[in-house]
Amino acid sequence: MAVQPEIEKKSFVQTVLDTADDVFTRITAGIPAGEVRRMIRGEAPGRPNPRLKPHSEAFLLHIKPTYYHESVTKFTHTFRLGLLSTYLFFVETITGLILMIWYAPTPERAYEDMIRLLSNVPFGQFMRDMHRLGAELMVLIVTAHMVRTYLTGSYKAPRQFTWFTGVILLVVTLFLSFSGYLLPWDQLAFWAVTIGTSMAEAVPPAIVGETVNLLARGAPDIGANGLLRFYLLHVLFLPLLLFLFFFVHYYKVVHFGISLPSDEEEVGQDTANKVPADRRVYFLPDVMIDEASFLIGFTALMVLLTAFFFSAPLESIANPQSTPLHTVAPWYFYWLQGLLKIADKMIAGVIVPGVLLVLLAAIPYLDRNPSRRGRDRRVAIISGIVAGIVMIILSWMGTPYYAVQGAPAVEVVQELMPEEGAGHVREAGYQHLPLGVYDTREHPTTDDAKFNHILHEFEASIARFEEQDPSFNNAYGILKITQEQPRLKRITWEIYWLSAEGVEDRFVRTFFLHEDSLYWEQYGLRDFSFLRPPGQE
Amino acid sequence: MKRPWYSFLYVRSPIVKIGLGIASLVLTIVLLLFIGIIEERRMEAQTANWAGREIEKGAELYANNCYNCHGMDGKGLPGVAPALHSKYFFTQRLNDIGWSGSLHDYVALTVAAGRPSRVQSQWAQMMPTWSNRFGGPFRDDQVQAVTAFVLNWEEDAMQQGAADNPDPWQYFEDAPSRAVVGEDGAPVAAVTPEPTGPRPPQELFNVMGCLGCHNLDQPQTPNNRGPVGPNLGNLYETAGTHGEDAATYVHNSIVNPNAYISEGYTAGIMPANFGERMSEEEINSLVEWLLDPNRQR
């Protein structure tokens, strides 16, 4: 652009302003500064609407609709759950990429890398916690998105295929979350995934099941090959699959429009794409501001949760030789674990989930009722709620509280000082475990309130199991705490009881606890005790 | 249209939305700043945490695998295995054997590779190979954990050599510098405790290192044999089956262990100097105790 003739024509100042506006318009992909000002002032767009230009100019905006129906922009119509799922995928990609920098998927390094990440990388623990929290929230929100779609009947014609891709996205999300489970290579990871892949083994006929299991694990047991395979599934294959199906899903959402609240249109009609001019809410600026502020708010909430209330667990290094007591699947598979407790591996692990999945994907084709109104869909909604309740009950049955209680003495110790994870005793910590021998028959008390609480729980727990279990009588416990080494205490739990036949029996379990060890629970207020000056309590 | 109860969730005003967005952004930045400020302390705490947990793991491995020979408190067993929990080990040992690396390397290497040779060994048992790299049971992290646990004795061991804790060698028999008067930081000469009359057999069985090789609780049967020395759980039944009466046989086996070797065991494993290290009275009480079917621990 020849500047000089411009200046001769207009004034110098005007030329500079025009050039600045030109640059601004290029950055905003078609909206001049004056229009942005009018947007902020809340003025209506002119005709033709100058705010539509970015939708044709900018790549990222061309997939967004230019306007929405006023009714679907209400927060409580969609709760922005689809947007949130997409955003969480974005968060997981970013945090996951950062975590990949410090991680090598081999059994020799994976666990060590986790420790190094936690203890030597600034914001390393934050990134890991955020990634884990994001993964769990993503499962939660994708599920909530599905439940919302089901309850508003939005899967009905013409959106059957959108629902189908949504079911695939749900499955991919679950697999993504689960495949990431193995990567820290700790006991939690190793055994959850061992159980998970062993379910694949039950696929009939045997040759297929064994082959699937072998392909997933890379060997008869999970090892270096299995870790590498799960890593590649987690960072490459499943994200790409999710990416693909996301675009199919989103294309369908935009193509058919978000379904209106059911009482705003006649039964059997779909007017989502016929938005009257006076009910249009344009993406720029209204919906964009709404979505952006919502996502920023959600990010703040996630950071807050990560900073204070959520810590990703890391147990001992994976040990194929020892299965920890009460191995559990991740919580979103508790229902499956519950099923496995009451039914055969083949039925509970393969047939029921398979049938459920097919049923879920086929809902739009099974439900021939054209109405999306709640009062016309009583059967569908009630069966949905019943299914939800069954899931919750099965999930409860999947927890160790149901039907896997070991011997009472083992359970008493496990409650106070589990083989893996924190437990009350480790949370109280080294400082609150005074040396000595404590016999529950003598109801000992010490000067330490926290320790008294532990002793009391020990006693109460023994008494409770004594009541429940007829082969656990006259039980008492002895807790011995001795100094094993400088800054290392030996904690020995001894429980004596009489069996139903009156035979004396005992159980002894020894743990060690170092002064510097920090143990934490996944959910709950984070332990900031390291901020205290040393020597203070 | 009736406004539903949750209508407070509808934020209509773009200005309020922008305001909430900015407030959230500020909150996020403040939280990240907070995390950034405490990050140094958190990393220190985590470093200490994992070092502490490694020692815990090492303690568990030691209690399951090592204490048989090196003793529950790491002070070794005479004739069986050297003391690790001794001032000598932490100050002089590397000089005596001319080791130029660190003590950590020395311990880690010994744990990993063991001492699978009998040449010039004063100990009754060979140190087995522990690392799975050389055919043992431990993974690398477990070798490191045991090493961390052993080295954690240093603070305690350095206090040995004082009047109330006299022996800086703690059953470390092969110690050339024992004869040398201690320089700065080196162990001072051991104070031999005054003999206090015959020791009880329970104590003898322990301090003489018998329990390193002989299991008192398990019976010796063809299917349940002690790996190094025969189990002694049913000695009162088996001792009389070798052509001598039980008491003579056990007495001879202690004083002159190579006179009769039970089938499947090797001569020269059991130290032959017990006759010098215990009085005749003590040996007799030990024999009597070992042959007692109802012996008390």
Topology (elements, then pairings):
The complex is a heterodimer of chains A (537) and B (297).
Chain A: H1 3-9, H2 12-27, H3 33-40, H4 53-57, H5 59-62, E1 67-69, H6 75-78, H7 81-101, H8 110-120, H9 124-151, H10 160-181, H11 187-200, H12 206-217, H13 224-256, E2 280-282, H14 283-308, H15 334-342, H16 345-366, H17 378-398, H18 408-416, H19 423-428, E3 436-439, H20 449-468, E4 473-485, E5 488-498, E6 504-514
Chain B: H1 14-65, H2 67-70, H3 87-91, H4 93-97, H5 103-113, H6 140-151, H7 154-157, H8 201-207, H9 235-238, H10 246-255, H11 274-277, H12 280-290
Helix pairs in contact in B: 1-6, 5-6, 8-12, 10-12
Give an account of the 3D structure.
- The complex is a heterodimer of chains A (537) and B (297).
- By secondary structure, chain A is of the alpha+beta class.
- Chain A has 20 helices and six strands.
- Chain A has helices at residues 3-9, 12-27, 33-40, 53-57, 59-62, 75-78, 81-101, 110-120, 124-151, 160-181, 187-200, 206-217, 224-256, 283-308, 334-342, 345-366, 378-398, 408-416, 423-428, 449-468; strands at 67-69, 280-282, 436-439, 473-485, 488-498, 504-514.
- Chain A has a four-stranded antiparallel β-sheet with strand order 3-4-5-6, covered by helices on one side. Chain A has a two-stranded antiparallel sheet with strand order 1-2.
- In chain A, strand 5 (488-498) and strand 6 form a beta hairpin.
- The mean pLDDT of chain A is 91.
- With 297 residues, chain B is mainly alpha-helical.
- Among the domains of chain B are: 67-179, no CATH class; 201-290, Orthogonal Bundle (Cytochrome Bc1 Complex, Chain D, domain 2), CATH 1.10.760.
- Chain B is built from twelve helices and no strands.
- Chain B has helices at 14-65, 67-70, 87-91, 93-97, 103-113, 140-151, 154-157, 201-207, 235-238, 246-255, 274-277, 280-290.
- In chain B, helix 1 (14-65) crosses helix 6 (140-151), helix 5 (103-113) crosses helix 6 and helix 10 crosses helix 12 (280-290).
- The radius of gyration of chain B is 30 Å and the shape is elongated.
- Classes of the chains: A alpha+beta (537), B mainly alpha (297).
- Chains A and B meet through helix 8, helix 14 and strand 6 of A and helix 1, helix 6 and helix 7 of B.
